[in-house]
Amino acid sequence: MKRLAVGALAGLSLLAGCDKGKSGPDPFALLEGEGIYKAECASCHGAAFEGQADWRTRRADGKLPAPPHDASGHTWHHPMAQLFAMVKFGMVPPNAPEGYVSDMPAFGDKLTDNQIRNVLAYIESKWSAEIHARRAERFPPQ
User: Fold this and answer.
1) Averaged pLDDT, groups of 10, the chain, 142 residues long
2) CA-CA distance, 91 to 129, in Å (whole number)?
3) With left for phi above 0 and alpha for psi between -120 and 50, is residue 137 left, alpha or beta?
């Protein structure tokens, strides 16, 4: 039994280091991000990132429905720092106009900064190569 546990730990440590030296997101971070997305975001933004119906049309209460996070939406049009701020602080200035009212909650008291980054990495991991290329043009690496 002890040998099995040591072997399992060795296997996990190899798996955890399998991406060292390669670019790309940490697979464990993506798993955490996926779980948080499903629990906290999918009910509004969609399990397939499709957003709510007619997301560009204001509802009777003046609010906009939740936008999609896939290529059809505008999430990828924003720099990652702004997306992080939107999730952490909600839709308040400077990420939204003064007085803007949204159903988007602020998650800063519920999620750690690292969890927010993992959710965003999960969303980003689902974007196509074309979207990644367009983002790279829009936001060149520093």
Assistant:
1) 42 42 81 98 97 94 94 94 97 92 95 98 96 94 81
2) 28
3) alpha
CATH 3.40.50.300 assigned to domain 25-138? The reply is: no
Helical H segments across the chain, by residue range: 2-16, 27-36, 42-45, 80-89, 113-125, 129-138
- pLDDT given for residue 54 in this prediction: 95
Please tell me the pTM assigned to this model: 0.81
**What ranges do the domains of the chain cover?**
25-138
Q: How far apart are CA 27 and CA 61, in angstroms?
A: 40
Residue pair 52/70 in contact by the 8 Å Cβ criterion: no
Spatial contact of 48 and 37, defined as CB atoms under 8 Å apart: no
